[in-house]
Amino acid sequence: MKKTDTIAAIATAMSSSGIGIVRISGEEAFDVIGRIFCRKNGKKLENPESHRIYYGFICDGEEKIDEVLVLIMKGPHSYTAEDTVEIDCHGGVLVMKRILETVLKYGARPAEPGEFTKRAFLNGRIDLSQAEAVIDVINAQNQYALKSSVSQLSGAVSEKIRRMREKILYEIAFIESALDDPEHISLDGYGERLKEVIEPLEAETKSLILSADDGRIMTEGVKTVILGKPNAGKSSLMNVLLGEERAIVTDIAGTTRDILEEHIRLKGISLNIVDTAGIRDTEDVVEKIGVDRAKQIAGDADLIIYVVDASCPLDENDRKIMEMIRGKKCVILLNKTDLPQAVTAGELEQVSGMEVVPISAKERTGIDRLESRIEGMFYHGELNFNDQVYITNARHKAALEETLSSLQMVMQSIEDGMPEDFYSIDLMNAYEQLGSIIGEAVEDDLVNEIFSKFCMGK
Description:
Blueprint: E1 7-10, E2 17-25, H1 29-36, E3 37-39, E4 52-60, E5 63-73, E6 84-91, H2 93-105, E7 109-110, H3 115-122, H4 128-139, H5 143-153, H6 156-180, H7 190-220, E8 222-228, H8 234-242, E9 260-266, E10 269-275, H9 285-299, E11 303-309, H10 316-325, E12 330-335, H11 345-352, E13 356-358, H12 367-378, H13 394-415, H14 420-438, H15 444-452
Parallel strand pairs: 1-7, 8-10, 8-11, 11-12, 12-13
Antiparallel strand pairs: 1-2, 2-6, 3-4, 4-5, 5-6, 9-10
Helix pairs in contact: 4-5, 6-7, 6-14, 7-13, 13-14
């Protein structure tokens, strides 16, 4: 454990609440708390026991600031692996600030954003991928993102990466040993044996890269666009999904002129959902701008929900929309099934070539089927976070893509009959790229950038 100065910060939200926490970590953490904490019997805190809670008061000289509980954690058995103190005080903004000011006055300095977690990383308690998972847990917007982040925090990504690196390092060491001592270590037929090692590593790397699509959806949400002709019920559907009247709904076609964006959760999935202007040929300049925007946004969407009015026959506008969404992830909804139908689900399926979900936004029927359909489209079966690792970090994905490229170059070198030292160069690059994921080979600037995104006190 490194010798470090002592830092302090408020670790809970700066708002009125039942409890607030001021965290102290570093070489003089116990000295600082000893100067400002008095037990109820009036005695100072001397030689405190680790992982014990003490009751008393925070004092600045003779002034009592607050009645508190003080938690003592001796390093390395703490979050930062340093001597750590947590002061549990009343959750008023003023009292938390006053306690922090007192802590700073008696020997600590203000912590930088993410500095507690950064110290945990630098002291070897967690690796870099686990540190990044901390902020993912804090920022999780749905149950899938939370489960994935907790899985990564517990070491799911780290363990897989370390196993892959061990296999690669063994082969690098074997090649280097054989080149240094050819009389005793033979490389005859080694290329074929190496292929048997690289092929499963290559497949494992590809699998991790492919999981990044699901990982992005877990953390960022599904970019979802609602399309359809005017008055098909798009805004009504959005209001039903939101559970409140956000979009204006009238019987007048073309009421929605611009896009309306909202964030909702369905079955644990986050949807960044956009209600658009009804798509049709129009001479109205303002409406035409809205239609063009709808088409543009649909082109970048992860998911399109195409709403069809069951009470009106299909026309040329419907056919243009179906042509536009062909080949994309799409759910077709046959809305207004509570009215006499001019088009049936079977007819719409035959024309579109896609499954149709009948609903009534007005009666709120069929919404469960829509939710299940969306869940099934993005998560292939029930996710199991104990067995499968999901890549949710763009930096990790980039490193894995570099790793895959290096492994493929090794395979190509074997096919071309290149000397064994060529294998070693690309294997080493793959080893280092995997190491960058867990922080074994990263620059200080990158580490500082990662932790600068953390909140204060974490």
